[in-house]
Amino acid sequence: MNHSDPHSILNLTVGEFLERLGSSDPAPGGGAAAAVVGALGAALVQMTANLTIGRPRLADVEDQARRIAARAGELRATLARLADADIEAFERVSAAYKLPRGDDAEKRARSAAVQAALQTAADVPLETARVCADVLEVAEAAAPILNVAVISDVLVGALLAQAGLASATLNVEVNLAAMTEHHAVDRIAGELGRVRAGVPERVERVLAAGRSRQQKPVGQI
């Protein structure tokens, strides 16, 4: 998960990332973790597609597998970028809360800056949730057709995407609770509701499709 930005958390080893998460530094936090979890889910779907491509016995689904691999790869990259974006959004909120409030003018400026930062801090995990939902859509297409020898990885990928979506949702809701701009709150809450609609049912369909195929004898990868 290397990234061109030297400050990106994606340039950390897994161990370093976990150390950062467990430290007293508030960022990266839950929002970045949600995006990384979603990216892991997308990567597992992508891997299963890549383990389908080039297998003679799976030639009839190769075109679909290529499309799934490409789409899952795009979603993985987007979620990876959102992990860094979440850290940046948090830092913007933290900076806004530290602005001076000695007089009425400063208080108004600080309040405006806080509300603008909170909106960004809600929009980023909203996008994370949306992309995780897209991963689930790809997983639903993948579960019935990809290489059955590794189809459990699609199922794990779907569960990780669901976890990323649920975690991102919590981060959206936390920021919405602190926002006072009703139009922005209504917009974000409405979009979040649309993203979440039907997710449990989709996950169950993915799991059912994969499990029904796992009951059959599994050959070589």
In words, what does this structure look like?
This protein is an all-alpha fold and 221 residues long. The protein is 74% helix and 0% strand. It has one domain (9-214): Formiminotetrahydrofolate cyclodeaminase monomer, up-and-down helical bundle (Four Helix Bundle (Hemerythrin (Met), subunit A)), CATH 1.20.120.680. It contains seven helices and no strands. It is elongated and about 75 Å long. 39% of the residues are buried.
Q: What's the rounded overall pLDDT mean? A: 94
Radius of gyration: 20 Å
What is the overall number of helices?
7
Give the overall silhouette: elongated
Number of domains: 1
Q: Note poorly predicted spans.
A: none
The CATH architecture comes to Up-down Bundle
Question: Given this structure, which CATH class is correct?
Answer: Mainly Alpha
SSE topology string: HHHHHHH
